[in-house]
Structure prediction request, 289 residues.
Amino acid sequence: MSNFEKKFGKYAINNLTIKLIICYIIGYVLAYAPIKVNILGFLTLNPALVLKGQVWRLFTWIFIPPNDSNLFFILIMLYFYYSIGTTMERVWGTYRYNLYIFTGFILMIVASFLSYLVLYIQLGGQSAYLSGMMASVSANFNTYYINMSILLAFAATFPDNVILFMFIIPLKMKWLGIFYVGYLIFEVVTYIYNGVFFACFPILASLCTFGIFWLTSGRFMHLRPREVKRRNEFKKSVKMTPPGVTKHKCAFCGKTEEDNPDLEFRFCSKCNGNYEYCQEHLFTHTHVK
Prediction:
């Protein structure tokens, strides 16, 4: 546990996924309510209007739900987000999951202002056109890409988990994650080719959120000089593995490579001693001091 977590961990919001889904439900109710006023239009993340004093938009944009006109697929989507979100909160812990989500929120807000800046430069500060363009672009700054960053984190944490794509096709999460990244890259290239670079910023914010997680989660732990030295010393001390003795064993659950040949093992740099953990417990175990 870091000093930052010790100090601010008590402020973490429990069951954050459920609270976000409640926000989506409120957003859908407002979107499909039989009223003439477009209430969601007053909640979007529009930097042009934020700079004019409508600061509530910095917070209310989380009520803008991912677009879908089919009630059945809305329910399936909400259940899927609930499933992967609550799983990640249990695996990472409330504090780290909160940190991931709110980092995504902050990056999305930064991305919206960068889009505004690019449009301002392209249009030469013509406020009439700028306001209209930002009104249409601001709808893209919603929680859709935040949810997709959670999907990427889930795919990276549980790459071999299998889901039924389209309720029929069994598909490992790592392939779903790879497909989604490829689709995002295609979207970015398409936007750039069409000269609407400012539309890329929500996508880049989502990828940056995942990238920060990847770089700070220990995924590159095996490349750190300290870990390379520790592994080399361990290999020198073990000249030969006797028959019937496994090479890897999780210090938490006791699993070895014989239990699952695809299971990955890593040494924890924060534990005192050569403690090795499987991929399921590398980030969730209590460090040995």
Remarks:
- Residues 3-216 form one domain.
- The radius of gyration is 23 Å.
- The mean pLDDT is 79.
